UniProtKB/TrEMBL annotation:
Comp. bias regions, Acidic residues: 10-19
Presence of the UniProt keyword Membrane in the record: no
Natural source organism: Microbacterium testaceum
Name this protein carries in UniProt: Fumarate reductase iron-sulfur subunit
Positions of the UniProt region annotated as Disordered: 1-20
Single biological process term from Gene Ontology: respiratory electron transport chain
Length: 261
């Protein structure tokens, strides 16, 4: 009878490899972070931090290092850390970006890296803003499918590939607010719906299965609606999902003029 040999491997000597073991060099990067604690500060203040990083690190890794190793009171939002949840939009060197998608190697580290909260929304603490005005505009455009008919029992609502293509770009929105908070009109007029709300209205206005496009167009044909857009393209440049935000706004404007999609 054949015998079974079980080979035991001694793993007690295994040690975790650090980037130094693989020859990857670390370097010191200075971060200048705009801090604000409403319980202590009258005004925001800039604070310097020197952080040891690797070129494969992201700005989010630097923020974690500062929070976990230097000052636990540093406050910022993040969840997925992979560009999906949209919670860590911030201004990095004056541009709206997701901290989890901004690689250190893509920044000029010979200068301090400036990090601050996105603009145009009430500052709560450090890099955290009150997102409620942003989500209030989002809710107002009714960002969900409204249909007057029911699909056939047990069947999906059929849509052609061509019809699906029409609004494909705007389905990619992760509601990070990078677009809305980079818009000069939104900075000066907090009542403006803002690009993100219009993008999410576009997603349903141009969906052939939806029957409430007219309602949304009516909502956006307002003095605080699409006509406030000055086509500065800041929103398109800021979008971490590569959505053609300005184009979507222009398509909604045209639909308002046509009286339908
Ligand atoms: S359109 Fe782009 S920038 Fe604007 S909220 Fe959506 S994902 Fe963020
Ligand atoms: S942490 Fe989720 S998008 Fe950056």
């Amino acid at each position: 009878m054949a015998s079974t040999v079980i080979e035991q491997v001694d793993t007690s000597e295994e040690v975790e490899q650090t980037p130094e073991d693989t020859g990857i060099q670390s370097f010191l990067v200075t971060f200048n972070i705009r801090r604000f604690d409403p319980e202590v500060d009258d005004e925001p203040r800039w604070v310097d931090y020197d952080v040891e990083l690797y070129s494969t690190d992201r700005v989010l890794d630097a923020l974690h290092k500062i929070k976990w190793e230097v000052d636990g009171s540093l406050s910022f939002r993040r969840s997925c850390a992979h560009g999906i949840c949209g919670s860590d939009a911030m201004r990095i060197n004056g541009r709206n970006r997701l901290a989890c998608k901004t690689l250190i190697k893509d920044l000029d580290i010979s200068q301090p890296i400036y990090v601050e909260a996105i603009k145009g929304l009430p500052l709560e603490k450090d890099l955290i803003v009150d997102m409620e005005p942003f989500f209030a505009s989002y809710r107002e455009v009714q960002p969900f499918l409204i249909s007057n008919s029911k699909p056939e029992a047990g069947k999906e609502r059929v849509q052609s590939i061509v019809d699906r293509e029409v609004f494909d770009d705007t389905t990619k929105c992760i509601l990070c607010a990078a677009c809305t908070s980079s818009c000069p009109v939104f900075w000066t007029d907090g009542q403006y719906f803002g690009p993100a709300a219009i993008v999410n209205a576009h997603r349903f206005i141009f969906d052939s299965r939806d029957d409430a496009g007219d309602v949304r167009l009516d909502i956006l044909n307002d003095k605080e609606g699409v006509w406030r857009c000055r086509t500065t393209f800041n929103c398109t440049e800021a979008c971490p999902r590569g959505i053609e935000v300005t184009k979507a706004i222009a398509e909604v404007k045209q639909a308002v003029l046509r009286g339908g999609r």
